[in-house]
Amino acid sequence: MLIDLHNHTWPRSHDSVLDPVDLVNRSREAGLDAICLTEHDAIWSPEEAQKLSEETGFLAIPGVEISTDDGHILAWGVEKYVFGMHRAERLAEHVAEREGCLVIAHPYRRQMPWKDDAEEWVKALAKAERNPAYQHCIAMEVLNGRGNERENRFSIDLGEQMGLPGTAGTDSHAVHDIGKVATYFESDAIETWQDLVRELKAGHFCAVDMTTGQEYAVPAGKDYSPLIQRAL
């Protein structure tokens, strides 16, 4: 399955101009099998996401993007925003209680070096690796649809350095964002956020550039290329 794990819609995300139904329809046209609704600190209930899925005939999975003191984190298993979630350790406790999971969002932001210098690059990676929020996350968004090649390269390098599996999400806020990247899952049995968490924890997935078909952060011993090419 090809799933976009990171999307924002209006009015739940104040900086998005996307209507949820339009996002769903355009994501289907782009060749995706499902999307995640991950608003900024605002929650889609499973019932609301299910209603959208039934109305459109396309799978929409509820999640959320939480703004923490140490960066933005994608979360599954959050039923409501609870005071204190701006601290990653509190967010992790809340999610663990519900058997959910956390994924680092666009780690290049405010962490990659301004100068295109090899030494500064290494120092920035080492500093980013010490981000205290990351100890609570099971994967890293190595491809962000709004990130440029250098920004995503930083995320890829950081994920490899930390030994974390890599996901991809468009971080869609407008029509031109939709369909650029996605996460390919080996399983075709993802129907709920719980199913998604199960597969994220299993690690059987990789990040895909939908414009080129290029894979990133492929699990050791796996070759998804033929399957991805058939899916695109």
Q: Which key terms come to mind for this protein?
A:
TIM Barrel, single chain, five-stranded mixed beta sheet, alpha/beta, globular, 232 residues
Describe the structure.
The chain is α/β, with parallel strands linked by helices. The protein has one domain (2-231): Alpha-Beta Barrel (TIM Barrel). Helices cover 32% and strands 21% of the residues. It has helices spanning 20-29, 46-56, 88-97, 118-129, 149-162, 193-202, 225-231, and strands spanning 2-4, 34-37, 59-62, 64-68, 71-76, 101-104, 139-144, 166-169, 181-185, 205-209, 215-216. The longest helix has 14 residues, at 149-162. The protein is globular, with a radius of gyration of 16 Å. The termini are close together. 47% of the residues are buried.
Question: Would you list the SSEs in sequence order as H and E?
Answer: EHEHEEEHEHEHEEHEEH
Query: Biggest sheet: strands side by side, in what order?
Result: 3-2-1-9-10-11
Please write the CATH class name: Alpha Beta
Please compute the radius of gyration using only Cα atoms: 16 Å
Look at the structure and give the mean pLDDT: 96
Biggest β-sheet, characterized? Answer: 6 strands, mixed
Number of helices: 7
Which percent range fits the helix content?
25-40%
The proportion of residues in beta strands is 15-25%
Structural class by SSE content: alpha/beta
User: What's the total number of strands?
Assistant: 11
CATH superfamily: Metal-dependent hydrolases
The parts where pLDDT drops under 50 for at least 5 residues are: none
CATH architecture descriptor text: Alpha-Beta Barrel
Q: Tell me the CATH topology.
A: TIM Barrel
- Gross geometry: globular
